[in-house]
Amino acid sequence: MRTLKDLSDRLNKLADKVEAAPSKVAASFSLVLIDELVLRTPVDTSKALSNWLMSLNDPIYIDMNAYYEGVFGSTFSSSRTEVLKHAHTIAGRKKAGQSLYITNAAPYIMELERGTSTQAPTGFTKQSIFAAKSKLPGIIKKVLADG
């Protein structure tokens, strides 16, 4: 037989789930966005790709070396893995009320954004944002289902 105490416990658990949901959605969305950015960033030496950094509370503007320096995109996969590993660590630390930032301080990232590489069109970051936004309903549904 269920009691009012059981109902109270269930409602408290539901309230905790609802309170945590926006933060979890933000973290999940940020991971999708950084992956979209990495996938669309033109890659030669992996420097620009390695400069996609996620941070909590404040943006970070550090000009990083390539995780794995290569030529003609030879280290794309290895560098992508490192960027995403770092992003997962940061997103996993996010608490309600904290902001997540994604930055890129590679000195030539704006040139790449303007389409100077034949590997990516002008506005690849905007395309990344649109692609991530299109996945937002699925992200929300998954977060709510997982609790």
Q: What is this structure, in a nutshell?
A:
This protein has helices at 4-40, 47-50, 76-93, 109-113, 124-134, 136-146; strands at residues 52-56, 100-104. The protein has 147 residues and is mainly alpha-helical.
Task: Provide structural commentary.
The protein is mainly alpha-helical and 147 residues long. The chain has one domain (25-134). It contains six helices and two strands. It has a two-stranded antiparallel ribbon with strand order 1-2. Helix 1 runs antiparallel to helix 5 and helix 1 (4-40) packs antiparallel against helix 6 (136-146).
- Helix content estimate: 55-70%
- Bin the strand percentage: 5-15%
Structural class computed from helices and strand pairing: mainly alpha
Number of helices: 6
What's the multimeric state?
single chain
What is the H/E string?
HHEHEHHH
| Low-confidence parts | none
Number-wise, the strands total 2
Q: What kind of sheet is the major sheet?
A: 2 strands, antiparallel
What strand line-up does the widest sheet have? 1-2
What sort of overall outline do the alpha carbons produce when their principal axes are compared?
Answer: elongated
How far apart lie the N and C ends? 26 Å
Count of structural domains:
1
Cα-atom Rg, whole angstroms? 19 Å
